[in-house]
Amino acid sequence: MPAPFPDSSAPHGWHGTTILTVRKQGSVVIGGDGQVSIGQTVVKANARKVRRLGKGDVIGGFAGAPFIKVEATKFTEAKLEQYPGQLTRAAVELAKDWRTDRYLRRLEAMMIVADPQVSLVLTGTGDVLEPEAGIMGIGSGGNYALAAARALIDGPLDAEAIVRKAMEIAADICIYTNRNITVEKI
Fold it and tell me: Residue 62: is it exposed, middle or buried by C-beta count within 10 angstroms (0-12/13-18/19+)?
């Protein structure tokens, strides 16, 4: 079973990342904070952990050490190119590679990817999960953001407002999460 907070055991003491996705009323949003820490030191406050992928029709957020995010992005882009318009198939194929490839299986990371139809969480152990109720948080502050989003989901806020508010709440609680939030929406 994967560790609930992949960054807490990250190589070289890298910590930090809160990624949250919310799907509501036909919109899907992924938000991520910008903090990267080594031990107790913030080394970067404006990292971009959420971005558009493929031809811009998929969004993704990555939790893990910075060099892992770069490698995960490369492999994800390659699978999206190989299986255009088929996010679930691309994710399953990436997960297979992640499990079996000697290089990939050393990447301790998680990612959330979404397109207009589906949101998925991919783990470093090769699991592909569809979040319950369209909400999922990963990373060191992921559970805090997830709890906040679940509390807000039935209220009047749209998906983007829920992500922003939940990320602020996570930043109040998790020392590895800051308020420099990047949000992508489809």
Answer: buried
Q: What is the pLDDT of residues 69-111, one digit of tens each?
A: 676 777 788 899 999 999 999 999 988 877 777 666 666 678 9
CA 167, distance to chain mean position in Å, is: 12
**Treating both helix axes as pointing N-terminal to C-terminal, what angle do 66-82 and 87-100 enclose, rounded to 10 degrees?**
130
The 3-state DSSP class for residue 125 equals coil
pLDDT in tens, 2-40: 333 334 444 445 457 899 999 999 999 999 999 988 888
Backbone phi, psi, residue 161, to 5°? -65, -35
Q: How many residues does the chain have?
A: 186
Instruction: Give catalytic status of residue 17 as yes or no.
Output: yes
Q: How far is CA 172 from CA 42, 49, 144, in A?
A: 16, 19, 9
Buried/exposed 144-181: b ≥16 CB within 10 Å, e otherwise: bbbbbbbebbeeebebbebbbbbbebbbeebebbbebb
> Which of 17, 21, 76, 123 is flagged as catalytic?
17
